[in-house]
Amino acid sequence: MTSKTLTMKLKERQKQGKPLFVPYIMAGANGLERLPAEIELLTTHGAAAIEIGVPFSDPVADGPVIQAAGMQALANGTTLKKIIAALQTIHSEVPLVLMGYANSFFHYGIEQLANELKATNVKGLIIPDLPFEHRSLVTPTFDAADLALITLVSLTSPPDRIQTLIEDAEGFVYAVTVNGVTGEDRQYNEQLDQHLQAISEKSPIPVLAGFGVSTHADVQRFASVCEGVVIGSKIVAALQNEPLPKVSELLAKLVGKP
Asked: Which residues form the active site (predicted)?
C-alpha cells in the first residue's frame, strides 16, 4: 500500500528533483543525549528520512563498523525503551525509520511498540530478519499506527520474486547492492545498475540502494538508476571518530552542501 505517511513524504521530496538521501545512525553509540544533534545535522544536509539503528547483540545484516557501534551503544546502556523515550522528546523535520531485529521488537511487544511510537516521528521500520512471508505478524498493528514495514530486495531475488515483494512494499524499497553485510568500499556486481533500474521501473514507490554506499561517486551512480541511496557505515564511523563539524564536512562531500 502507498498511503503511508512515509511513502507520501518521500514522494513529496522527490518533486525537488534531487536523489533521495537516507542516512543511517546507531542510536546510543555516542550517547542518546547526542541523538537530537545528529538528527538535526543530517536533516540540514538534506536527509529525506533518517534510519535509527536499534543495537542488538547478534546483528545478522550489519558489517564491522555498525556492529562495533551497536556494541558501544549496548555498553552505554542503550535499550529500545530508552530509544523510544528519547525519540518522544525529539521533533524531527523528516520521518524517522527504526532499523532493528525481530527479537528486539517482539520481546518489547508489537502492540506496545506501535502505540509508543505514535508519540514520535517514526513512520517506518526495517526488520531484516523478519521473513516476507511472516510480515502479517506485524503489519495489521503497523497499519493501524501508520507505520510502514520496509521491504528489502536482494541481488539474488529472481524477477517474479521482486514483483511479489514490490507489490506489497510501502515507504520505500530497500534494494540491497551486495550479497553480504553492510560496509564501506564494497565491490559491486557488474549487472547491479541494470538490476536497480529494473526494480525502479516496476516499483510504484521510491527505490533506494543501500549497503556499501560510501562516496559521492556511488551516490551519483545509483541516483541515475533508482531514486536514491541509504548511507550507513561511512556516517556511523564519522560520528564515532569525528566532532560534528567534521561530520558536516564529510556529508557535504558525500551528498552536497546544505
From this structure: 51, 62
